[in-house]
Amino acid sequence: MLQSPTLVNESACFGGTVGFYKHWSQVCGLEMKFSVYQPPQAQERPVPVLYFLSGLTCTEENFMIKAGAQRYAAQHGLMLVAPDTSPRQTGIPDEDKDWDFGTGAGFYVDATQEPWSQHYKMYSYVVEELPALIAAHFPVLPDRQSIFGHSMGGHGALVCALRNGDRYRSVSAFSPIVAPMRCPWGQKAFSHYLGTNQEDWRVYDASELILGGTELGCNFSGDRPILIDQGTADSFLDTQLKPDLFAAACAKVGQPLTLRMQPGYDHSYYFIATFIEDHIRFHADALAISK
Q1: How far apart are CA 224 and CA 164, in angstroms?
Q2: In the annotation, is 267 catalytic?
């Protein structure tokens, strides 16, 4: 049974509220945290909900503090939910040793390898437990939800949407890791969380999911576009992100993709804040009550 979340603190924002919460997660087996922006419309009626998955080293705070999304969520009547990026203080040895693995780097997978499999179940947490918690305790329309994210969170958003096309009406990403099987960040995380059999990695690789289709469990409707923004001055562009691989996969199977290469922008939240309005509008259109 889902326990009610505990409000840690709350602030007024653009006619609504930003709240930070904690709760006991049955999936992860410990306390987890998340943040919620409730737009002013939520005071009168249930509203659609848009989930944001953050990147490496981030918490449930980064997006709410830095992205500037609340102004546009208020205009369109969308609730925003941002979970933490990993379990914390699990007691696993060396959990905090590396910035790109362990704490703050859950990679939105369900770990199968000990000791990580005891708590690192971020895929199930994001797709199943957190939405159930939000639906039970916040005024949302649970059948109208979408997802987006940044970097590691962009990877997570794409994977969650591609594998759960019946749950998410739209997906977008900023600077996503689109082919984790073919970059150092992904290879490091997957080998520890999922083991050395790379066949087991494919269901958490957006490019592989697009190419594998229903055989890998990809059920995202092929007539729905995907939006990706990527900065050309991103220092991780060629080594870790590799958007060309995802673009090629989409082109091969006919998946509509809008990949915008933004000149001069890097990997930071300054980049996200610049184009956040476009992404909120993109999701608002997909989540429109009239549809």
Answers
A1: 13
A2: yes
**Class of residue 143 by CB neighbours under 10 A (exposed 0-12, middle 13-18, buried 19+):** exposed
Is residue 119 annotated as part of the catalytic site, yes or no?
no
The predicted-structure confidence for 185-232, as pLDDT tens digits, reads as follows 999 999 999 999 999 999 999 999 999 999 999 999 878 999 999 999
From 86, 151, 170, 172, active-site residue: 151
Task: Please state, in angstroms and rounded to a whole number, the distance separating the CA atoms of residues 44 and 35.
Answer: 21
pLDDT at 1: 64
Residues 283, 145, 229, 83: what is their CA dihedral angle, to the nearest 10 degrees?
140
Check: CB of residue 104 under 8 Å from CB of residue 85. Answer: yes
The reply to whether 151 belongs to the active site is yes
Express each pLDDT in 51-98 by its tens digit: 999 999 999 999 999 999 999 999 999 999 999 999 999 999 999 999
